[in-house]
Amino acid sequence: MPQSARSAFQLTGLSKNFGTLEALKDLHLDIKQGERIALIGPSGSGKSTLLRVLGVQLRHDIGSLKAGDLEILDLSQNELQNLRTRTAFIPQDLALVSALKVSQNVLLGKIGTRSTFKTLRQILWPNTNELESVHQILARVGIGEKLFHSARALSGGQLQRVAIARTLYQGAETILADEPVSSIDPTRAHALLSLLRELNEQEGMTLLCSLHNLEYARQYFPRLIGMREGQVVFDGSPESFSQVDFENLYTLENRE
Ligand code: ADP
Ligand code: MG
């Protein structure tokens, strides 16, 4: 699906501090709907913080963040909740419940759009239609047969797929995935990145992933955003990412 001219996110002079630490410094970015972007950069450069800010998990301190036409800092609690439903953040630890079945973890995707009572009822006694749609989504991400398995019994790569299925069930338009392949082996990492690319290309989902493996980033993403010490130091295609850009991003300063 072609990328839209409409912005998914616009950041203007955005900063985020933790106490005296400037985790994000004066960011200016325009991210279009339907884009597929890898966030790269050394550990501690602000990748997770940026994903959390975009996913409305963390509030920024200075500057503007627009999601579509909405200025985040102006939104009410209800509007923020709506936005979280459309913009799914998948944390590095996935936030799945290992004691529950795969189907129940996916059903939890609608927890933000239903009352707690209704969510609980759905999880304990899901109706056939609901289960059928969960099954279809699990099949879409390649693990249809795991519907009634306990989440505890799944591998890291399969759990990533459950987390992706949960975002699809939730009805998200954007996936923000924090290091989705950091703890899975290379074969499964390629399969998972291919799936994410497919969801972006075929279903038009906007996709941002932080990755510490630069080769994966170059292979699967047409746009790389390189961060260092809370700032954007590269923004462009993998083809335009040079050795100098690599050194700017990863070379340690003040080596003893
Ligand atoms: P990355 O994901 O690129 O490794 P992070 O976004 O996790 O980087 O962290 C950026 C900086 O912000 C780091 O210096 C980190 O220690 C700090 N940081 C992140 N989260 C918090 C927090 N909740 N409280 C205090 N400092 C934090
Ligand atoms: Mg991180």
Write the layout of secondary structure elements.
Blueprint: E1 7-18, E2 21-32, E3 36-40, H1 47-54, E4 62-67, E5 70-71, H2 77-86, E6 87-90, H3 102-107, H4 116-124, H5 128-140, H6 156-170, E7 174-178, H7 186-203, E8 206-210, H8 214-220, E9 223-228, E10 231-236, H9 243-250
Parallel strand pairs: 3-8, 3-9, 6-7, 7-8
Antiparallel strand pairs: 1-2, 1-4, 4-5, 9-10
The structure holds adenosine-5'-diphosphate and magnesium ion.
Residues 47-48, 178, 210 line the site of magnesium ion.
CATH superfamily: P-loop containing nucleotide triphosphate hydrolases
Structural class: alpha/beta
* Radius of gyration, taken over Cα atoms and rounded to an integer in Å: 19 Å
Total strand count, please?
Answer: 10
What's this entry about, in short?
The protein has helices at residues 47-54, 77-86, 102-107, 116-124, 128-140, 156-170, 186-203, 214-220, 243-250; strands at 7-18, 21-32, 36-40, 62-67, 70-71, 87-90, 174-178, 206-210, 223-228, 231-236.
